[in-house]
Amino acid sequence: MSYGLSDGAAPTRFVLAYSGEYRLESWRPSSGWAILAKWPGKCSVYGYCGPYGCCDNTMVDPTCKCLDGFEPANLQDWNRGRFSQGCRRKEMLRCNDGFMSLPGIKSPDKFVLVNNRNFKECAAECAANCSCVAYAYANLSTSETKGDGTRCLVWTGDLFDTEKWGDLLPTETLYLRIAGLDAGTREKASALKIVLPTVLENPDDRPLMPSVVFALENGSNSLPAPNQPAYFAQRNNDMARLRENIQNSMNTITITAVEGR
């Protein structure tokens, strides 16, 4: 690698520090060597956010956040930017608690690989084990699976070295077991998210059928949120004004206007 400087520029250098950081430094006569850039970034430091902490790379200045259902283990240290103690659950888990989908996540460390499982079997594998705290499922194109084209990852210990990348890099959806989340309620909510976009009034706003089938088979919630249902209650202002102006007759005839609900 080589680089050059323009005439009159301050002296610069690349330094591999004892800590493992790779730095670009520039000389300042008043203060010495100033760090212009350094690698790896905060989120690339292994376990930077501690157990159940997630380093959010989607922010301009990446920082640590607790996963859903968790809070800082030491709030005072957390507010000071010391994240090594990570996060703890707000409520203790029960065996029948459901799972929340967290898309755009780089898989945490220390998973167990379960071969020859489709998505539903992977979900059932984790749900049936009360010690399983999370699972993920994604295609695997390498030879690690020896012919098995899919992978099922499950976690039974603390989630460690978790990062959120969103759409920046190929990621997976992490399904995290959440205390107090009823599995049946979650499944109904997921089904509604899939069904509602298919009944939008404008056909152009409806998702394509292959997308709906994929969402149903894989438990995905990636379909767009519906703008408004095809049929909804809307008061007819003209009819309302007509009702207000009607004078009751002596024989008390009742006039009823039928409106769709």
Automatic annotation (TrEMBL):
UniProt domain Apple: residue ranges: 95-179
Keywords, alphabetical: Disulfide bond, Signal
GO BP term, example: recognition of pollen
InterPro entries in UniProt: Pan_app (IPR003609), S_locus_glycoprot_dom (IPR000858)
SMART domains recorded: PAN_AP (SM00473)
One matching Pfam family: PAN_2
Taxonomic superkingdom: Eukaryota
Name of the molecule in the record: Apple domain-containing protein
Taxonomic source organism: Eleusine coracana subsp. coracana
Gene, per the UniProt record: gb23189
